[in-house]
Amino acid sequence: MEKKLYKYKKKKTHFIFGYGKRKIANLYYKRVFSNQLLILTDINNKVIVTQSAGASIINNNKRRKKIAQTLENMFFFLKKYILKYNINNLRLYMKMSIRSHFYMLIKLLLKYKIKIIFIKIIKPIPHNGLRGRKLRRR
Asked: What is residue 56's three-state secondary structure?
């Protein structure tokens, strides 16, 4: 029998668009019922890293996962990858309505001198619309 020679796959690199010192990436922030998600992607929407509130806090309390201060812990993990890829400009996509979480995220980005190129708020639209009113009894 012949031995199969295995070729090592090349490590896929992320395409972070940039000219000069300007490097651009996408940051998606999604808040679901009992958790928060931060997803850092490159320009082609290849995921670089994801971070959830449940993975970043020590105690797994449902109420603690929802508060805006958990963003600081989540962003601490993301900061390593932002520094690794020299990202200094972000496109911010919010999959939620604007609340205190939004202001906290912008404050954190400004703290680490990361510029926000644009912000897009993507609100989920229900297929069925709102539930109708209850009919009046006669």
From this structure: helix
